Amino acid sequence: MSMTKKALTATAALLAASSAFANQWDDTLEQMQSQYIVPKYESFSSSANALADATATLCAAPNSANLATAKQAFNDNLAHWQQVQWLNFGPVTYFMRYYAYEYWPDKKGVTQRQLRTLSMDPSTMTTPKFWTSASIAVRGMTAIESLLYHGDFNVIRKPSDCEVLEAISRHHAQTTHDVLTQWQQSKATDWIFPEEGSTESAEHLVVELLVQQWLEHMSVVKDAKLETPIGYKGQPNLKLAEFYRSEQSLPAIETNLKAYRTLYHLGQPSLFDTAMAEQPELAQALEAALADNVKLALQLPKDYFTGQYTQAERVEMAKPLVQSISNSQTQLTNLVTSMGFQIGFNSRDGD
Amino acid sequence: MQLSRRAFLASSLAALSIPTWASSMPIEAQGELFFSAFSKSKTEHFIGAFGSHGKLLWSMPLPDRAHAPVVHPTHSVVGAVARRPGFYMDFFNPFTGQAIQRIEPLAEHHFYGHAVFSQDGTRLITQENHFPTGAGKVVVRAWPEGQVLNEYSSGGIGPHESVLLTPDTLVIANGGLRTHPDNDREIMNLDSMSPNVTFLSLSDGSVINQAQHEPSLHQLSIRHLDVNAQGVVALGFQYQGELWDKVPLVALASVDSDALEYLDMPEHVRARFKQYCGSVCFDKSGKTLAISTPRGGFVAYWDVPTRAFLGVDNCRDVCGLVATNKKDQFVLTSGTGKQLISTPRTQNISQLNQLADIHWDNHLRRIDINI
Predict the structure, then answer these.
(1) Which one, B117, B173, B197, B318, has least CB within 10 Å?
(2) The dihedral of CA B25, B29, B35, B40: what is its sign?
(3) Measured between CB atoms, which of A93, A342, A346 is closest to B278?
(4) CA-to-CA distance for A111 and A118, rounded, in angstroms?
(5) Which of B41, B280, B336 to mutate to test the interface with A (most CBs of A within 10 A)?
(6) Is the pLDDT of residue B222 over 90?
(7) A176 with A48: CB under 8 angstroms?
């Protein structure tokens, strides 16, 4: 074979490889959307509707049994939220929906204060454009949890409290339905901002953004959900734990960590499959780290956030999980950067 | 031409008014040069220069990650200021490759990543943190000797970037954040921080004027700034509060201001900033203002005379921003290695180059060689 033919063959092989590579991300992303994002939002939307229905039933017939049903509906809805919480991308980024879903940590008790005001005259919530200008503190699950679990509110004995609960739950269900519909009617690549001279495919850029979201969420789980409330590096304040009133702080972490493993193996080829083909050692290292996360979270006692433990005891119990999540952040970073993804240089600088 | 350090210093001292930038210029770099720090990995850090076509013309390794370059106004001297908490400032002649000088902060101080030369190039002005007390300092040193001439209070805590308003007036962005190098990303005064912009006399260190936010916005750190020929100071903020808080992110001020004038932008654009402004830059005319946000992945533009929002250029991880010698034109650099040239009023943007495996760091400077 002449050098020219060799060169042509090599070029053709390279083009075929890069084309296959591009198609690989196309498939992976399409399946991330069709097999994870949309179905998980379907579940989230469905349980948000169930929650809205349960609160309507409760307000029509306020009693302990209906309150228990509403609380269970809330917990179910929360579990579905925890599966998509890592994804602050696409439809949820509009109209402050992401932050309205969960106003946390609410260090100044803004939610309770605003709920008390609304309960004084719930009719304001039926005025036109109320929800377009309403504070994010009273638009989602943090507010719903307060009304169901906080001692300042009594949705059985005080009709106005229940009226506020019902209105927020219905709004929350509508928001979730809207996000779901937008995911169903669009492609993930519709939600990025194209830039001049980009040599990467739109699919590559979206996968890159999703990986960035995943990395950021790992920090949220480690720092905000675990370390901060238990006082891993400072003073403990268990009231800063996520959804602590409904005692869902630990289940939320478990669901998040399980979701990471699902994400890694999603589709054919999955991110794991592609990683195994390109960087088998790094792929396996991340696989092991993600598995460790779940195992260690499940080893924490069920009353980890609510039991009578000292700060030192909680910190000691958390150490293996904190170190494991930290390790999985490192492994994910190493893997995706070796695969050509940019995880941010200036954007992660903070100066 | 290779000058010895002694010879260079001698020539600098003897002929400060001669623009050695022009006489030292290689043919391929005639016109303009752009300087920025960059990294190739977590452990490989450099300062470098590229020409108007984006080709890397010069680079020198650095001991640690830098933040912003500082360019001498007349002599072929460029410095790299270490990223906060910075403990070095390395100066080079990019045409001889010679390391000229290393300046270190005062004892128990660190740099903030920015510095500026006086207009005549005889003094080097740095912002420093006296970390045992958190006092913000402006330190004036003789150039090139490096001896400290003056040590002034910056008028606040966390003086990050400063620019010259006049030869005698320095404008300082006091970010308000108290930090300590032992744990440099921990903010020690989140509840009490009080950022301001300070206009400081370089003659005696007196405060000519200060402007700040109302108390409810005390976590809105004033971090970067630029000044145009009309004396308008543009300010870019980094909010330390919650991501969901609706706070202003860009403002204008002047030496007479008793309050900051916040610039409007569409809410969906403001939200995309993720509470974080990177570089602040006027164009040559001073009528177009550009603000980069690496977290948002874009540069936003305003018409200064009307305060009207003009639009954005999308670019992942963009931060470096500098005006060219044409009005309404900027060069942008990103952490993905891109160099772009944009004319926002005509919505023209094109890529000059993208250098593989290079992450351009936060700030970009330019010199015009046709002096």
Answers:
(1) B117
(2) negative
(3) A346
(4) 10
(5) B336
(6) yes
(7) yes
pLDDT tens digits along B142-188: 999 999 999 999 999 999 999 999 999 999 999 999 999 999 888 99
CB contact under 8 A, B317 and A205: no
Structure tokens at B89: 């400032």
Asked if the model's pLDDT at residue A11 lies above 80, the reply is: no
Report the alpha-carbon angle A89-A94-A98, nearest 5: 65
Is B67 in Cβ contact with A347 (below 8 Å)? no
Nearest to B84 among A193, A194, A351 (CB): A351
Q: A9-18, A157-166, A286-295, B52-61: lowest mean pLDDT where?
A: A9-18
> What distances in angstroms separate CA A126 from CA A45, A94, A122, A134, one per listed residue?
22, 22, 8, 12
What residue type is assigned to position B323 of the chain? A
* Nearest chain B Cα distance for residue A308, angstroms: 30
Q: Which residues of B10-41 are buried (b: 16+ CB within 10 A; e: fewer)?
A: eebeeebeebbbeebbeeebeebbbbbbbbbe
Q: What is the pLDDT of residue A350?
A: 82
Which of A94, A196, A346 shows the shortest C-beta gap to B340? Answer: A196
**Is A15 within 8 Å of chain B by CB?**
no
Which residues on B lie below 8 Å from A211 (Cβ)? none
Q: What is the ipTM of this complex?
A: 0.89
The beta-carbon neighbor of B185 closest among A94, A347, A350 is A350
DSSP 8-state code for residue B306? T
Shortest CA distance to B311 belongs to which of B336, B328, B335? Answer: B328
Sequence-ordered alpha helix ranges (H) in chain A: 3-32, 38-60, 64-84, 97-101, 110-120, 130-133, 141-149, 159-184, 202-219, 228-230, 249-264, 271-278, 280-299, 311-338
Which structure tokens are listed for B197? 């912009």
Q: How far apart are CA A150 and CA B227, in angstroms?
A: 52
Superfamily of domain covering B5-368? YVTN repeat-like/Quinoprotein amine dehydrogenase (2.130.10.10)
What's the pTM value of the predicted model, to 2 decimals?
Answer: 0.91
In this structure, what are the phi and psi dihedrals at residue A4, rounded to the nearest 5 degrees? -65, -45
Domain chopping of chain A, boundaries: 28-187, 202-338
CB atoms B316 and A195 under 8 Å: yes
With a CB cutoff of 8 Å and minimum separation 6, the contacts of B178 are B134, B157, B158, B187, B188, B189, B193
The residues pairing with B127 across neighbouring beta strands, listed in sequence order, are: B138
The residues with which B211 forms a beta bridge, in sequence order, are B197
Q: Judge whether A196 is closer than 8 Å to chain B, CB to CB.
A: yes
